[in-house]
Amino acid sequence: MLSYLSDWAVFLLPVMLFSLSMSATPGPNNVMLTASGANFGFVRSLPHMFGITIGVMLLMAMVMLGLGVIFERFPFFQTLIKVAGSVYLLWLGWKIAISPPPQLENADGKRPFSFFQAAAFQFVNPKAWMMAISAIGLFTLTGDDFILSSIMIIAAMGVVNFPAIACWAGFGVAIGRLLKTPKHWTVFNRFMGGLTASCVVMILM
C-alpha cells in the first residue's frame, strides 16, 4: 500500500510543478485578474478566479475524452481558436483601458468577470488549450491507469491553479491601494489594457 501511494506521489510531483509553472506565469488570465483585483477588489474577483480554474479543468477533461485529437486531424480548428481568442483579447484590452476609476464604477455599470464568463473564456484562450493538451499528453499513463491518472492530473491542476492565480488578483489589490488619483487609475488601466492586448502577440507567435 505504501509503495503504491509512493508511486502516485512520484507521479504527481512533476504534474504539480508543471501546473504551477503554467498557472503562475503571465498570460491573459493573470493579466486580467491583476486588473480585476485593482479595480474591484479580491472578494469581487473570486467568481472570476473560480471560473478560470473550473474552466481549465473542464477543458482538460474534454481533452482527456478525445477533443485534443481534433487539433491533430483538423488544424483549422486551432487557427480558429487563435483568431477568436485574439479578437476577444483585443476587445477586453480596450474595455480595460477605458475603464473609469473604481469610485465611478457604479455609475458606469462596470462589473468584474462572472464565473461563467471566466469559464467560457478558457475555451478561446490558447494558453488554456496549451495547458490542457500538454498536461494530458505528457503525464497520463497508459492502459488501466489512464483514467485514474487523468483524473489526478486534472485535480492537481485545480489544486495548484487557484492559489497561483489568486496571487495575481492579490497583487492587483496591492497595486490598487497605491493608486490615489483618477489620473493614476487612468494610467494603470491603460497599461493593463495594453498588456491584455499584447497577449495576442504570444498567441500568434
Explain what you see.
This protein has one domain. The protein is 82% helix and 0% strand. The protein contains nine helices and no strands. It is found in: Cell membrane. It holds the Pfam family LysE. It comes from Nitrincola tibetensis.
Strand content: under 5%
Model regions low in confidence, pLDDT < 50 over at least 5 residues: none
Distance between the termini: 47 Å
Q: What's the main sheet like?
A: none
Helix content: over 70%
Radius of gyration: 18 Å
Average pLDDT value?
A: 84
Count of individual helical segments: 9
Count of DSSP E strands?
A: 0
Number of domains: 1
Based on secondary structure, the structural category is: mainly alpha
Order of SSEs? HHHHHHHHH
Q: What spatial form do the alpha-carbon principal axes imply?
A: globular
Organism: Nitrincola tibetensis
GO biological process, one term: cysteine export across plasma membrane
GO molecular function, one term: amino acid transmembrane transporter activity
Pfam families: LysE (PF01810)
Which features characterize this protein?
membrane; 9 helices; mainly alpha; globular; 82% helix; 205 residues
Any chance you could write out the topology, listing elements then pairs?
Blueprint: H1 2-24, H2 28-40, H3 46-73, H4 75-97, H5 105-108, H6 115-121, H7 126-139, H8 146-178, H9 182-204
Compact description:
The chain is mostly helical. It has helices spanning 2-24, 28-40, 46-73, 75-97, 105-108, 115-121, 126-139, 146-178, 182-204.
